[in-house]
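During the no-cost extension, the postdoctoral fellow (Dr. R.K.) reprocessed legacy sequence entries with the updated structure-token encoder. One reprocessed record is reproduced below for audit purposes.
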Amino acid sequence: MNNPLAKILLTFSIICLLMAGVLLSVYFMFQNVEKTFGPADDFISDQQRILLSFRLFFEKESLFEERTLTTEVGVFNIGYGESVASVADRLAQLGFIGNEQAFLHYMQYKGLDKSVQAGEYKIPQTLSDVQLANFLQDATPTDAIINVLAGWRIEEIAASLPNTGVEFEALEFALLAKNPQDYQIPFGIEANSLEGFLLPGRYRIARDSSANDLIVLLTAEFEKALSGDIKKQIEQNGISLYEGMILASMIEREAINDEEMPMIASVFYNRIEQGMKFESDPTIQYAIGKTDAGNWWKNPLSAADLQFVSLYNTYLEEGLPPTPICNPSLAALKAAANPAESPYYYFMAKCDGSGWHNFSETFDQHVQNLCN
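Re-encoded structure tokens follow.
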């Protein structure tokens, strides 16, 4: 290529493509970190947000790893005016946290480094770095802060409770949620479990509250969220409210990015219209339950897993699973109420690790989207 202008244009095009790739990567990184940790603190700069998001993207696994301390549950004191760096250093030396730098990055990202309180903390024996960072926000609280993450099943909610400071046992909560009383079930729905009725969010509750008090709070928030247009719109789609909740739970577990939820919902509705099986991996993951590695959502599934005998296996069984498979977010419930209009019957995660999906009309097109 001897034309100087052509060389310049080629170089410029390559630079533009590289810049576009970098921008897309940064965008997907932000999406993933925000989905995992929630929004960043409003008071950190854009430069800090970029840097901390980049670091947390690679550190998230260690931050959520739960460790059981080999020593007895200890009392940890934070002095007045002590820096967060000093606190993190002492926590690391005592074995309370696994990754000191990741712990600091998370606290800075969430703005928690500015609100650590001096005082005495009784550190639970089993916890993750994320849980500990939030635990250090109140040395002598009268209330417990409970974070129910979107897509959690009852067992995962229960597992998070010992680190919140509530006085009731996690097992008591799980048993009540799986065997509810009629008054605890919103809208008078006939259900054998509260799976799907526990609205994700951040809740404050008195430490001496009972497990039943927490269940009443979560289900009341669920009923409040759905008492308006969402309930009506789900039922206008030709399915019952409970069926809409089941769909929303599947949408929640399939989607990484909330923006795709209405499109995923459209695929499920299109399959219902054509009498097709849902063939949704998360329903099998729910049926399999906790793996030997301690993960509630086995990934990837094997060919043998697809033959797992269960009413929740939507590869083998027609129609919806018997119950919701998780507790879906309001975004997923809205998607079940207002699906996009599309011609698609299939979707598959893209091969770039972004969490976005390729959608297709035919099975042949679907197969072409397989990752090598």
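The mean pLDDT is 88. Residues 141-227 form a domain with the Dna Ligase; domain 1 fold (CATH 3.30.1490.480). The remaining legacy entries will be reprocessed before the final report is submitted.
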